Amino acid sequence: MTAARPTADGPPGPGDDTARGTALDVSVVIAARDAEATLPAQLAALADQDTRCTWEVLVADNGSTDRTRDVVLDAARRTGRVRLVDASAIRGAGAARNEAARVARGRDLLFCDADDVVAPGWVDALHGALRGSDMVAGRLEWERLNSRAAQGSRALPQVDGLQHTEPLPDLGCASSSNLAVRRTLFDRLGGFDVRARYLQDTDLCWRAQLAGATLVFEPAAVVHMRLRPGLLGAWRQGRGTGMGQRWLAARYAEVAARGSAPPHPAHRRPRARAR
């Protein structure tokens, strides 16, 4: 896990003896940078979650220059559940998530993004599924927030099951836009690898499974995804995916050469369909 400044604004923070431990059932972690336009919808969807578990929302601000911090602080005042974490020391979503996880108080970590919208029941679906697995990936829904043209120009993963990609296609992986992991496992793995600019979530999933952890798909945990708009957005997304795949190929070349560990039966799910 990366070292960063111990700053968290909002109700009880890491200064308490219990803050670093298991005072809550769930910590929802959102990495954000210049997200004032989309973050309010995500925070509103989280505020509407109907759950009996004890939980918090941590927004890790990764150096925003817009009103992202104000949006978070306003939500903190209104709900008493949201905390702002200063994660500006190291650029990148993975580093931001690591810093939020460092000060989180939940036994379970639930990850979603600042530009998407969680569906009703999302917290309970992931939290419940973690009772039987070490990591859980939820369903990505692509129609609500995107035009048909945008949907038709991209591959839309994680609709029916886990994702699979080279060089370890027998191991499932998932987007951190809808991912849950037990806190003890996340700490043992050292969090997201900040050396990777892209596909840090795939790397985390693979490292977990190669260490003996289980990853399952929970279709009841739904996140409405927002695609990057226009051709430039599609190009940037594709470019980032390509860079991440090259990094994964280099990192896991030796593992792939000797054969990956046999997947848990729950990992074998239909591959994402392209539309």
From TrEMBL:
Pfam families: Glycos_transf_2 (PF00535)
Protein name in the entry: Glycosyltransferase family 2 protein
UniProt keyword annotation of Oxidoreductase present: no
Domain of life the protein comes from: Bacteria
Taxonomy of the source species: Bacteria, Bacillati, Actinomycetota, Actinomycetes, Micrococcales
Keywords: Transferase
MF-aspect GO terms: transferase activity
Residue span(s) of domain Glycosyltransferase 2-like: 27-188
Keyword flag Secreted: no
Residue span of region Disordered: 1-20
